[in-house]
Amino acid sequence: MNKIDGRAKTVRELLSGVKYGLDYFQREYRWDKKHVEELLEDLEGKFLSSYDPRHERTQVQYYAHYFLGPTVISQKKGLNLIIDGQQRLTTLTLLLIYLHHLQQGRTEQVDVLNLVFSAKWGQKSFNLDVPERTPIMDALLGGRTFDSGEPLGSVGNIAARYANIEELFPETLRGDALLFFVDWLLDNVDLVEIIAYADDDAYTIFETMNDRGLRLSFTEMLKGYLLANLGDSTEKASADKLWKQRILQLVELGKEEELDFFKAWLRAKYAQSIRERERNASNKDFEQIATGFHKWVRENKERVGLRKSADFRGFVENLFARFTNHYVRVRRASQKLTPGLEYVFYNAHNNFTLQYPLVLAPIRPEDDQETVDRKIRLVAGYVDIFIARRVVNFRTLGYSSIVYTMFNLMKEIRDLDLYELAAVLKGRLAAVEETFEGVNGFYLHQQNRNYVRHVLARMTYHVEQESGMESNFETYISREIKKPFEIEHIWADKYERHTDEFENPEAFAQYRNRFGNLLLLPRGFNQSLADDTYEQKAKAYFGQNLLAKSLDEQCYRNNPSFAAYVERSGLPFSPHAQFKKADLDERQNLYRRICEEIWSPARLERELS
């Protein structure tokens, strides 16, 4: 092996005036929402452990440092090719772009753009220089929307992760603390840069650092601790066989599912405390389980009920075996719409990862399958209503904003029977101030597009299903079909057609995004109608889904199933020969009533009947 250089660098040092490229095998950016959540939570916690509102910004230099991880660079012919670490560097770049936008309008700002891009000879290029990503990075930097048409590739994933940063960035860092946080991020967050001057050496380092066979995982260390406390070799062999079977089931679900299961299960059944978001706060059960559940179990064995050999055997052969089955079933329902567990799928589509410990919390080892399923439906059904209410009232679903609420609920519903569980959840819904009255002022904006799409898909599916039509929610939200459904504005973007009701283009544009003006239509069909008048669109809508059809008077002729649903539900459906401001308001009221029907708390009562 040739010479290897390695040293710690701050974010500022690593990204200042240096261009990084990717080798051909490193092209895809794979981080998902969970990784962004964890990064922002870690950064927030470490920063707040030192921050004091009474400090001057100069004191940030003395704040605690945070280690983000290593980067491995192959340096050849003046190029810096990233061998390992591009996921972190890409996400850091997205965070810096967001922090640039977040500072706009402030008198005092921290310049972060020189860490995002630099210019030479009049040509701007990003410091993480990947040509196929330039259009999306340009759009994000310019505050523009961008549709790659390929949501599953790096470009689509970058757009999705930036949206996650916008959604999840902690409230505690947005106010007076913002500039302190930006200073801290640039100069107190460290990475170790390892530079190799030959490809073979760089790849060897990469393989060594990522060779899982050289170190035990948290799961393997937990298994070792549990099995070491069993009786004879026969017991250990039986437990080991069971453990491997269950872990294989988890791994088949996804790469990190075994870790996610233990975090969800142990938090759901045993965690009693969570870290406060304040200076010098330390990690509690909730965080400790996430960062080292094998160690947490050893240190809390009394609470977990591990005192003698029989307890360890019961923990593996009874509790572990049962709860892996429950978790696998729930996770499969989150990936594919499953009759009886639909709410789980809906919550997963909204990326609500906290539902997994929540649904495990009330389940008892002695519960039969019917009771387990009813408890899952109660909890997931509650979460579904909670999400919808927050969405239409413009309340954030960011991890740091709701984790305390969900953790306290988790503890409150732990091991409850069905009737106790339903009573707690009904009480929670009754106490929440957000209702579907929020739909009256609900509108589309850049950050809530995915949620609006979800709500429209649920409404479209519900109306068709209740009218006896064949319908499929997954079709309305799928990105993998040839012509995925997109949000359609009923009003074309033509202010000149609405000058009788709006004084200026800005007022029109704002009203055009109101919820009652939106539908879901297939992408190609949607684009073909872009500039048509309402009268032209209404005729075309009749060939689409029932919610779109209901704008046209033909929908109300010879359609007995739909008519029966309208009469049964009392919903104010009506055709619209024209679509003026008053028509849009009428439609908005209809949408509110549909939401109230779909997300009615009465579903909790029905689960007990």
Shape: globular
Low-pLDDT runs of 5+ residues are none
Rounded to the nearest angstrom, the distance between the terminal CA atoms is: 71 Å
What is the helical fraction, as a range of percent? 40-55%
Structural class: alpha/beta
Strand elements, count: 9
Number of helices: 27
User: Mean pLDDT score, rounded?
Assistant: 90
Count of domains: 3
**How would you write the strand order of the largest sheet?**
1-7-3-4-2
Indicate the proportion of strand residues: 5-15%
Plain-language structure description:
A five-stranded mixed β-sheet has the order 1-7-3-4-2. It has a two-stranded antiparallel ribbon with strand order 5-6. A two-stranded antiparallel sheet has the order 8-9. The protein has helices spanning 11-15, 33-48, 86-102, 134-141, 154-168, 178-188, 199-210, 218-228, 233-253, 257-270, 285-299, 301-304, 309-335, 342-349, 355-360, 369-392, 399-413, 418-431, 449-466, 473-477, 505-512, 523-528, 534-541, 546-549, 560-569, 581-598, 602-606; strands at residues 4-10, 20-22, 66-76, 79-84, 117-120, 123-126, 189-196, 485-489, 518-522. The radius of gyration is 27 Å and the shape is globular. The chain contains 27 helices and nine strands. The protein starts with a strand and ends with a helix. Helix 10 (257-270) packs across helix 11 (285-299). The chain folds into three domains: 4-213, no CATH class; 216-434, no CATH class; 438-605, no CATH class. Strand 3 and strand 4 (79-84) form a beta hairpin. The protein is 53% helix and 9% strand.
